[in-house]
Amino acid sequence: MEYHRQSIRLDGFDYSEKRLYFVTVCTHTREEIFGSITDGKMTLNDVGKMVDKTIKSMENKFPVLIDSCQIMPDHVHVVLNVGATLVVAHNENKNHGEIYRAGTRPAPTVGDIVGAFKSLSTNEYIHHVKNDDWPMFDHKLWQRNYFEHIIRNEKEYYAIIQYIRDNPIHYGENQ
Hints:
It is a single chain. This protein is α+β, with helices and mostly antiparallel strands. The protein has one domain: Transposase IS200-like (Alpha-Beta Plaits, 2-Layer Sandwich), CATH 3.30.70.1290. It is 34% helix and 23% strand. A four-stranded antiparallel beta sheet has the order 4-5-1-8, sandwiched between helices. Helix 1 crosses helix 3 (110-132). The radius of gyration is 17 Å and the shape is globular.
C-alpha cells in the first residue's frame, strides 16, 4: 500500500514571491533539545544556540531577512521576509501584470530555505555528536514537514509577532 501525504501548501501559489511568511519547524517526535523555559523565558542550551546561528545564516545564503524568531524547547517559529514590505505582503500577487518575486530567477522558495536550514542544522548537530558528545538523535532531527502561513496584511503580521513573543509564556498550556 502506497501512502501519500496531502500537501498543506496553497495549490498554485508561487512560494518564491516577495512576501512575509510565518514558518514553524518542529523537532522529530517533539523532543525538547533546544533548551528550557523558566518563568516564561526561553534559555537556549548549546543545541539551541547552534540552531539560532543556523537560522541567522540563512540571510547570507538566500535573499531573505529573519524578521522575527523564537526558538522553543522543541520547535522554532520564524517570520521570513522574502524581499517584502508590509505593503507587498498584503498586495495581490501581481502589480501591473508583474509577479513580485524574490531575487533572481529561479528564485528560491520558502521550501528551499526551510530545507537548507534543516539540512545545515542537522549536519552541524551531527558534527557536535561526533566531536562534543552531544546526544544522538533517533533517526531524524526534524519532523518531515513544517507549518507555513502567508502573511497577508499588517493585522496578521502584528498578531503573529505577538504570538511568537508570547510563546514562551504559554508553552505547555495545550500539550
